[in-house]
Amino acid sequence: MPALIISRLFVKSKKIGLALSGGAARGMAHLGVVKALYEKDIRIGCIAGTSSGAIAGAFIADGYDPEEILEIVMKKKIITYLRFALAKPGLLTMIRIRKILEQHLRARRFEDLKIPLYVTCTNLNSGQAEYFHEGEIIDKIIASSSIPGLFAPVEINGSIYADGGILDNLPVKAIKDKCKRVIGVDVNYTGPEEKIVSAIAVIERSFHLSIRAKVEEKAKLCDLFIDPDELRDYGLTDLGRGREMFDIGYRKAMELLEETKVLN
Question: Of these residues, 139, 163, 168, 227, which one is catalytic?
Answer without folding.
Answer: 163
